[in-house]
Design brief:
Number of helices: 2
Structural class: alpha+beta
Keywords: Membrane, Transmembrane, Transmembrane helix
CATH topology of the largest domain: OB fold (Dihydrolipoamide Acetyltransferase, E2P)
Helix content: 25-40%
Number of strands: 5
CATH architecture of the largest domain: Beta Barrel
Distance between the termini: 42 Å
CATH class of the largest domain: Mainly Beta
Length: about 140
């Protein structure tokens, strides 16, 4: 009975960790998209576009990891702090639930395997391999 309690509590704990916000678990906040304006358009064969955006009252320019935008067009970008910025549309949206789900399934598989090994090793009631034949009343023993 103790094993079932442990399996249940660990399963509930891992499920809570799966559905808690990433910020509670110590994950970094994803970068926020910023609206930028294309100031120089580069052809897709030879260069990249240059964008400009407002960062805390200062105008900043950087190369956009993309091409083919027209001059004056506004695009959503993600500034990672380097000399190049990425388009916000190229980054995955939402929380990385795949890793959490993988961890949950791995934990549950390990617990199920351990519980199966426990049952195999310490089975409470084992039936005999060969059932004894009933004795007849008149036969010698």
């Amino acid at each position: 009975m103790f094993i079932l309690l442990v399996v249940g509590l660990v399963g509930i704990g891992v499920a809570l960790a799966l559905f808690l916000p990433a910020k509670v678990l110590g994950a970094e906040e994803p970068p926020r998209p910023v609206t930028a304006t294309v100031v120089e358009s580069g052809s897709c064969g030879s260069g990249m576009d240059t964008v400009e955006w407002d960062a805390d009252g200062q105008k900043k320019q950087a190369k956009l990891d993309g091409c083919g935008h027209t001059k004056g067009e506004t695009v959503e970008i993600i500034n990672t702090g380097g000399e190049m910025v990425s388009s916000a549309a190229s980054l995955p949206a939402g929380l990385p639930v795949g890793r959490r789900l993988t961890a949950l399934l791995l934990c549950m598989a390990a617990l199920a395997g351990g519980f199966y090994a426990f049952l195999f090793r310490y089975a409470p009631l084992r039936a005999p391999a060969v059932m004894p034949t009933p004795r007849r009343a008149g036969s010698p023993s």
